[in-house]
User: What shape does this take?
Amino acid sequence: MWLITTILVFIFTRWLSQKIRNPLINPLLVSVTILISLLFYFDVSFEAYYEQSKSLSLLSQIAIVALAYPLYEQLPQIRSNWRIITLACGLGCVISMLSISLVGNVLNLDLTLIASLMGKSVTTPIAMEIASNLGGEPSIAAILVLIAGLVGAILAYPIYNMLNITHPIARGLTMGTVSHALGTATCAEKNGEDAAFSSLALVVCGVITSILAPSFFALAMYLI
Assistant: This one.
């Protein structure tokens, strides 16, 4: 039942987003809102919902692999711009984790929460693993990743248009660095080149964050 319901809700929200051209009518955001409301109304636990719809989770793995195709198409540009790609992704990761360390110190956050926040700008499986290894809560990390992805998916292109940012490398790298898989999916709907560089940033930032997160968490512990 819930598998079919989820598919129908997503089809409806896709149709709605095409009819109402507004960044806030994001298919994922609206779908999640509708499904959570239905689960509360019918008093269905997440475990029961997941058990009936877990086959959809397998499709996300296929979708991630499918992002390799636009990446392959842009190989010549990637080769010629590898320095700026490495620099942009590296700076994005460092600034993200450094800001968490400093904000955690200023607000006197619990170390468990800081550990959960460290991977907020990488894709969910990596963020959950980072949180787990640092002593954080993987479930909190997953929620924060979802929020970061939704914010990027909703606001990124309006900001690009407002600032007249049109280059696919600039748009793709910023989206993939900040909003990971959800942002990359949005790029795929807008522009294939954007999606290629976004998926590249998603991978590179995942690797960099996995390597550097323990050092920045140690910095946060030292500051606190």
About this structure: The CA atoms of residues 94 and 209 lie 8 Å apart. The chain is about 85% helix and 0% strand. The chain has a mean pLDDT of 83.
